[in-house]
Amino acid sequence: MNILRARPWIVPGLAIATVLSLFDISTYGQTESALTQTEPLDSNLEAVVQSIEQSRIKAIASAIRPTVAVFGNGGEGGGSGVVITPDGYALTNFHVTSPFGNHMRCGMSDGKIYPAVLVGVDATGDLALIKLLGRNDFPVATLGDSRQLQVGQWCFAVGNPFLLATNLQPSVSFGIISGIERYQYPAGTILEYADCIQTDAAINPGNSGGPLFNREGELIGINGRASFEKRGRVNVGVGYAISIHQVKNFIGALRSGRYVDHATLGATVSTDDAGRVRISNILNRSDAYRRGLRYGDEIAEIAGRSIRTTNELKNVLGTLPSHWRVKVKYRNADGLNETLVRLDAVHSNEELLELVQGGLPGMAPEPKDQAPKKEDPKDQEKTEDNEDSKLKDVNLADLSPKPSLEWKKWYIEKDGFANYFFNQWERQQILSKYRESFGTISPNAVWQLSGKWVGDDRVVELTLQDNKIEFSKGGLSQSIDPKQGISKYISKRNIEGLPLVLGLWRELMLNTGNAKGNLLDNALYLGTMPVLGNMTLHHVLELQISDTKMWAYFHPENGQLAAIELYGDEDDDPVEVYFDQPATFQNHSFPTRMRLQFGVEPTAVFLLEQANFANTPASEAKPEESGS
Amino acid sequence: MIRIMTFSFSLCLAYQWLLISMLSFEIAVAADGDSKATPWLALVRNVQEKVVKIYGAGGVARLESYQSGILISADGHILTSWSTVLDADTVTVVTTQGQRFEAKLLGMDPRLEIALLKIEATDLPHFSMQEHPKPDVGTRVLAITNLFGIATGNEAPSVQKGNLLAYSDLKERRGRSGVIYQGPIYVVDAMTNNPGAAGGALTDWNGNLLGMVGKELRDPQSNFWLNYAIPIAELRAPIAALMEGKALAATNVMPQIEQPHDLIDLGIILVPDVLNKTPAYIDRVLPNSAASRGGLAVDDLVIMLNDQRIDSQSRLRSLLQSIDRADSLDIMVQRGSEIVPLKLRRE
Fold first, then answer.
1. CA distance A601 to B226
2. Spatial separation of the C-alpha atoms in residues A584 and A592, rounded to whole Å
3. DSSP label of B117
4. Each residue of B121-178: pLDDT tens digit?
5. Mean pLDDT of chain B
6. What percent of chain B has pLDDT over 70?
7. Tens of pLDDT along A296-322?
8. Which of A211, A234, B18, B134 could form a disulfide with B138 if both were Cys (CB 3.0 to 4.6 A apart)?
């Protein structure tokens, strides 16, 4: 196991470190004195050197401020982390937080210790999101672009190696990017480092979860692993960081308070004699199969990145969250094809829970029977004393019991969640923003919509009411009764999909008080996902409605409903409706352009002309009269 | 197992030089700006392209099946470390561009622990073998290696940065560290000498080849791992000899001899030949034989016979078939990590 969580004991191999540091002192130490002793050099050159030196000092100073030392509640080891939002969201490694349970303590270079609560966990990618509490103006790291990195660029790691930051001042180590797009195999199926950054900046136990910055002080990765073989658990010039590109893909999912998972294509590949990556096995229930990928097809590109080796495929998939729908280019007898594929999850929910809660291999879970000990009032006093004298070194042992129970306000236990509080929190934000833009809802109102399908001049009228969805075109009327099951309508793959989706959405919007209507307010927040392979990430809510599953996509900025996907039978493509061009009808904002789609081919586009969201069932008016 | 090793580091620190190299470091840092192809990044890419990954035998008993190599001609001559990795029927070379080649072993020099490989290619980027001024202590260096086999598939080898700490002699007293090379080395402060790094390039920050990264080396008493490279100046002449095909060709057409040597006649009994390529370890030496007179000892491993590489018992037997009994034999054995040359002669 090459992960780097530090424990608070003397690290074997200290002798090596001492010998090497002797050399360091003799070389660098002399350099410093040489700089002051030697005659002045070319003044321009000196100015250049000075300015570079100053910019580096500045970058390091700004990088130290958002870096945190992560400790457990009983002083049982720890690691590093980095704050990325002013309200305290911070990144660290799953293998750092794993033994600490749902809350921990974070020291910053301001000399203060902040309580922190676990938000979300990505065990597969060894990432955890935590939230520091107590401030809304935390110093934050600027996120860089790790896709632009090149071998040879300068970088530096900041963190808490060997738990040295007992005075809460992090250590800095300087190095270069030794390699990019590296793949480091998982332990079993978790802790996979795909598409990661390799550096020779010293990464030691305790640096785990801490930031790797580029020379400008932008966050480019989360350090978490190193290659060790025979020299003990100390840096041997090879450290690995999770790329910030991958982290950005997962932040939305992590903020949902879930145990998130990584993506798989639902197919295995192998490299043929000509070096092409070909499908060697494919699940016929996978979306990849539905989109036409078959045994023997060559994978050319996934999510905009070309695939030339199986490692590259693992690198790309390893950086994507489960269920993302991404562009895939593949080659078969017909030539090069482009499609969209919904990626599966690596684990089932049960598997993932078992892995996350089972503790890490080689690491004892936090002993539960010692919990009462933490309530010892003496220990609590000791801690308080220590925090009062901020500038004094904090003894690790004194980091034990924190009287603050602040974290409890930010934590809700629920099966299958790292912290259900944040799922609820995010969902409320999304729904209140959407409801605000939609306008006040009239209970039990019948929604009457009219418009035309593109390419058809006949007026289409939709009348949506409880358990009854009616639609008519040119005098011919049809109706859907959702009580009779919904998935059979999905299987039909026809234009009934649109009234079905709109009718269900109306029920979700209106019935906020009764048992059925609470669906929306109890929806599962999945995090952020691309829409149609477009990387503007949208918030996604998941709801179970009768025999179907609905995913509703909300725009990250304006909060508008952007799309709904309705999944029926496992083998069927879902109904997809994309909403666009909102207009206002009686103070309700509603899209006027709705595109219906199954698979990747658009089925039809509906243009809304009139809408009435406030008709009472008793005074059911005719569509002509109900226009706004 | 007692192993004592002495490294005489001549840490003569040239202050002026350090200052200048520090400045070049800062300027290099300055050059590494936002634009994609700065001179510094181009230089790093350039030296990476002259290093190859080598895959061969191993993968068992803590023996890696991979190492590094340095391109030294446009036609595909590769300098590498001589190791068990090369004891494979097929040795594969992968370039930074991801091209794969089957390599031919042109020759090896066991005393320097180097081997020369050849791949069939042209116009390859390569290091010049021309003389450079000896680098001063304090010179900034880059190490480009396939350490830990991290770079898989078509990935480029790893790059590390550091300084020359010392130019010194590697002397092992009663050496049993597994390293045979004895002679001058560059000691560096970067953690270069890891599994798979042997055969990689050590360059200065102008991209000049300074040395070949050596094998892993640990002092068991202090548990100190030495990071070092063999200076290219030490290897220039032996490489030239290998390139001219003078020394140690791996395969030769063997003439038929009427009265050739054989093992029993020489007084040599090898360990049982049970593998496809059983190493030529001496199991017994018969008394009053050419072998006993010549100083051959039990557990010696025969690695060379008349400047021909011996990789197996069958190779030793077939080569003996080509040498007349009247001729004496120049034999080289590995005894522990020492290389011992012996002369065997029938009476």
1. 63
2. 9
3. E
4. 999 999 998 887 889 999 999 999 999 999 988 899 999 999 999 999 987 654 455 6
5. 83
6. 83
7. 999 999 999 999 889 899 999 999 999
8. B18
CA distance A519 to A552: 12
Rounded-to-integer distance, Cα A309 and Cα A298, Å: 11
B29, B154, B186, B193: best mutation site toward chain A, by most A Cβ within 10 Å?
B29
d(CA A543, CA A523): 5
Tell me the average pLDDT across B311-335: 86
Element (H, E) at A281: strand A277-282
Shortest Cα distance, chain B CAs vs residue A246, angstroms: 19
Q: How far apart are CA B161 and CA A84, in angstroms?
A: 30
Q: Residue A476 and residue A558: Cα distance in Å, rounded?
A: 37
What residues of A are labeled active site?
95, 126, 208
* Angle, alpha carbons A550-A556-A562 (nearest 5°): 45
Q: Which residues of B touch A181 (CB under 8 A)?
A: 155
Find, in chain A, the residue whose alpha carbon is nearest to that of B188. A23
Helical H segments across chain B, by residue range: 15-31, 39-48, 232-243, 263-266, 290-294, 313-320
Q: Does the pLDDT value for residue A369 go beyond 50? A: no
User: How distant is the Cα of B258 from the closest Cα of chain A, in angstroms?
Assistant: 47
The two tokens of residue A332 are 């078969």
Q: Is B18 in Cβ contact with A30 (below 8 Å)?
A: yes
- Which tens digit of pLDDT belongs to each residue from A329-351? 999 999 999 999 999 999 999 99
For residue A429, which phi and psi values (nearest 5 degrees)? -60, -45
Q: Which of A148, A184, A235 sits opposite B191 (nearest CB)?
A: A235
- pLDDT at site A359: 67
Give the tokens for residue A290: 């539905």
Nearest Cα to Cα of residue A127 among A219, A235, A259, A238: A259
Q: Is A346 helix (H, G, I), strand (E, B) or coil?
A: coil
CA distance A404 to A108: 17
Q: Is B17 left (phi over 0), alpha (psi -120 to 50) or beta?
A: alpha
Task: Please state the rounded mean pLDDT for residues B191-208.
Answer: 95
Bridge partners (DSSP) listed for residue B331: B305, B342
CB atoms A152 and B36 under 8 Å? no
Q: What confidence score (pLDDT) does residue B6 get?
A: 36
Mutual orientation of helices A14-37 and B15-31 as an angle, nearest 10°? 90
Is A235 in Cβ contact with B13 (below 8 Å)? no
Under DSSP, the state recorded for A190 is B
What gap in Å lies between CA A473 and CA B331, rounded to an integer? Answer: 99
Return all residues near A73 (Cβ < 8 A) that are at least 6 apart.
A100, A101, A103, A104, A105, A374, A400, A401, A402
* Six token digits for residue B22: 């520090």
Residue A198 clears pLDDT 90, i.e. is over it: yes
CA dihedral of residues B244, B246, B249, B254 (deg, nearest 10):
120
> Which residue has tokens 């210790």?
A113
Residues 6 or more apart in contact with residue A341 via CB below 8 angstroms: A265, A287, A288, A291, A293, A325, A326, A328
- Closest among B150, B263, B241 to A180, alpha carbons compared: B150
Q: Which residue of B has its CA nearest to A28?
A: B18
CB B235 within 8 A of CB B114: yes
How far is the C-alpha of A73 from the C-alpha of A498, rounded, in Å?
53
Cα gap A305→A315, rounded to integer Å? 10
pLDDT at B93 over 50: yes
